[in-house]
Amino acid sequence: DAGVIQSPRHEVTEMGQEVTLRCKPISGHDYLFWYRQTMMRGLELLIYFNNNVPIDDSGMPEDRFSAKMPNASFSTLKIQPSEPRDSAVYFCASSTLGVQETQYFGPGTRLLVL
Amino acid sequence: AQSVAQPEDQVNVAEGNPLTVKCTYSVSGNPYLFWYVQYPNRGLQFLLKYITGDNLVKGSYGFEAEFNKSQTSFHLKKPSALVSDSALYFCAVRDVTDSSYKLIFGSGTRLLVRP
Question: Residue A100 and residue B51: Cβ atoms within 8 Å?
């Protein structure tokens, strides 16, 4: 298996632009998680899905952030409009059913908003 | 509320020496505990986990961790450190009684192994 795939790996954009991050989970995994990592705040859970349905989005910073999972093999995290404080590394992770199961992380998207 | 503490921002050891990266946790019920490692410009990689059973858990790359319920700790250990072990290490916890599938991560400990 190729593991969790994220694209793009790097994104540089200007303030006010729309940014879309993409994730393909490991085949057969029915949980998908979006995290943000910054020096100041560490690793934060933004939102997670189970069977393509958003379960908990309490970590989403504000209405500028939205996430979708139209099918079992694809998810997006969108920021519109982007701001410099959104600069971070965004990780997607997936896991199988069960609280015991390990989350497997993608390589991350490094976002820089100028 | 669940929480994880990694009291050391950085741990320095010489190659060949044993290493310990500390982690303590707080949960309402019983914990599921995880260790992840992050190399520069990479995602987090799973090392090992404690779910139930033997308190000593063995994982990837020769790492092991010991679950200590009375001290609410899950320290990561390796008998002989390698320079290639230098990375950022994260401890994470999930409460068994929590219906949420959230993992709570510690702030991370940077391990530096000197040649």
Answer: yes
How does pLDDT run across B76-105, given as a tens digit for each residue? 999 999 999 999 999 999 888 777 778 899
Residue A2: closest CA among A32, A28, A35, A27:
A27
Closest listed residue to residue B32, CA positions, set A77, A85, A100: A100
For an interface test with A, give the residue of B30, B101, B109 to mutate (most A CBs within 10 A): B101
Judge whether residue A98 has pLDDT over 80: no
The pLDDT of residue A96 is 86
The whole-angstrom distance between A58's CA and the closest CA on chain B is 11
Of B34, B90, B101, the CB nearest to A43: B90
Phi, then psi, of B56 in degrees rounded to 5: -95, 120
> If you write DSSP's letter for every residue of chain A in order, what string do you get?
----EEE-SEEEE-TT--EEEEEEPPTT--EEEEEEEETTTEEEEEEEEETTEEEE-TT--STTEEEEEEETTEEEEEESS--GGG-EEEEEEEE-SSTTSPPEE---EEEEE-
Q: Does A103 touch chain B (CB under 8 A)?
A: yes
Residues of B in contact with A91 (CB under 8 A): 43-44
Residues B50 and B32 sit within 8 Å (Cβ to Cβ):
yes
pLDDT tens, residue by residue, B55-84: 999 999 999 999 999 999 999 999 999 999
Query: Mean of the pLDDT values across residues B29-49?
Result: 92
